[in-house]
């Protein structure tokens, strides 16, 4: 179909065509960036924690004297092991998605010239690796002699495990076993590599660092007390946690159970990503509303033009144009308008993404979102214009003679 007559007709309706083109450009820009944000948030929610979430719970207590922490640990651990259904108990510094654990910037040299980024330190007692379900993929797990008292931040000269993600970041292409790193004057040596272990707040320091974690063996005591990991069958974990709270209340009435920290790990994960789920829902609603408004705009404009051109359409039918020709005319006209709007929308999409990158530290918009947005708006435009175009095609040739 010749395009020149369509462009000539559009020039007679510049304002209406320009407005719908701008609406499509805005829709394209918002659609691409909103879909990118939804995918980005959804990917963040799929982070692998590395622990057996469905079978684990964290129980936290407050209000105890550090001087009596060892006695408290002994009483609580013994009581928790006696709870029916509990298969493992250990004293931990934290779990993924739980309360904040020890965090510090590390260096790969004693002079601190080569920074390695901010990492989480999971200082935990004996039995934690097995209780969590962590998988050591290289090297060895800490032995009994590696669990030494925590004097301050973490035990010094610790033999630790790092995640595969952190090892690849610190020593790309190298065997991490035997490598050393430092936090101020604290020294660590890598003896093993974990397959996965997410941060307490994965994504808070960027998607690439979601698993920059270190497992540090420590002996329960004054600096490692108050948080207890329980393992039980997944179907019983909620009931076991309830019984565990009752057991702690009996053996340690002087402490206060931290309700915010005392949850199953699955519940901790649900709570941590609650904001992301809300944002995904809001963005999805915005996309649907924007597409609906755009479709209504195209439908309204096409209906207006059909009403304005009834005599013109009748004349074309009278001189031999078929219904199919009329239908194709309006579909091609809509296709051109959408195409112009999409081209402008691509530029606007990258401009909008640049603002989001500077404000929220998001990555650059991948180029494949542009053809997705383009195809979506093309299909939407054709569907929106279909009903007015069918009405136009149904205009009889006799309309051309009614005003003569």
TrEMBL record:
Main location class: membrane
Transmembrane segments: 278-307, 334-356, 368-386
InterPro entries: ABC3_permease_C, Macrolide_Exporter_MacB
Domain annotation ABC3 transporter permease C-terminal: ranges: 286-396
Subcellular localization(s) per the UniProt record: Cell membrane
Keywords: Cell membrane, Membrane, Transmembrane, Transmembrane helix
Membrane topology, as annotated: Multi-pass membrane protein
PANTHER family (alphabetical): ABC TRANSPORTER PERMEASE YTRF (PTHR30572:SF4), MEMBRANE COMPONENT OF TRANSPORTER-RELATED (PTHR30572)
Family indicated by similarity: Belongs to the ABC-4 integral membrane protein family.
Name by which UniProt lists this protein: FtsX-like permease family protein
Provenance organism: Luteibacter sahnii
């Amino acid at each position: 179909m010749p395009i020149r007559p369509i462009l000539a007709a559009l020039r007679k309706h510049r304002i209406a065509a320009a407005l719908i083109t701008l609406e499509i450009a805005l829709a394209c820009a918002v659609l691409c960036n909103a879909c990118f944000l939804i995918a980005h948030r959804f990917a963040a929610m799929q982070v692998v924690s590395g622990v057996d979430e469905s079978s684990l719970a964290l129980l936290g207590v407050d209000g105890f004297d550090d001087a009596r922490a060892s006695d408290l640990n002994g009483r609580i651990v013994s009581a928790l092991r006696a709870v029916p259904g509990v298969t493992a108990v250990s004293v931990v510094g934290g779990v993924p998605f739980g309360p904040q654990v020890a965090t510090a910037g590390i260096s790969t040299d004693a002079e601190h010239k080569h920074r390695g980024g901010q990492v989480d330190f999971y200082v935990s007692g004996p039995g934690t690796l097995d209780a969590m379900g962590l998988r050591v993929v290289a090297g060895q797990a800490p032995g009994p002699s590696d669990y030494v008292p925590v004097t301050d931040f973490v035990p010094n000269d610790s033999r630790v495990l790092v995640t595969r993600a952190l090892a690849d970041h610190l020593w790309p292409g190298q065997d991490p076993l035997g490598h050393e790193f430092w936090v101020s004057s604290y020294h660590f040596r890598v003896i093993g590599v974990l397959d996965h272990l997410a941060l307490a707040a994965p994504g808070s320091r960027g998607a690439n660092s979601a698993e920059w974690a270190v497992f540090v063996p420590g002996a329960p005591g004054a600096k490692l007390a108050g948080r207890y990991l329980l393992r039980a069958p997944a179907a019983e974990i909620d009931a076991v946690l309830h019984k565990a709270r009752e057991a702690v209340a009996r053996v340690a009435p002087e402490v206060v159970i931290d309700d915010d920290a005392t949850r199953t790990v699955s519940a901790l994960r649900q709570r941590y990503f609650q904001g992301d789920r809300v944002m995904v829902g809001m963005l999805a609603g915005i996309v649907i509303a924007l597409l609906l408004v755009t479709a209504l705009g195209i439908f309204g404009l096409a209906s207006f033009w059909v009403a304005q051109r009834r005599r013109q359409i009748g004349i074309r039918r009278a001189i031999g144009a078929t219904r199919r020709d009329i239908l194709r005319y309006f579909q091609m006209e809509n296709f051109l308008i959408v195409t112009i709007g999409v081209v402008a929308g691509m530029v606007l999409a990258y401009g909008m993404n640049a603002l989001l990158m500077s404000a929220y530290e998001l990555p650059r918009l991948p180029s494949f979102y542009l053809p997705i947005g383009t195809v979506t708006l093309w299909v939407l435009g054709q569907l929106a214009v279909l009903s007015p175009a069918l009405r136009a095609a149904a205009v009889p040739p006799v309309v051309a003679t009614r005003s003569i």
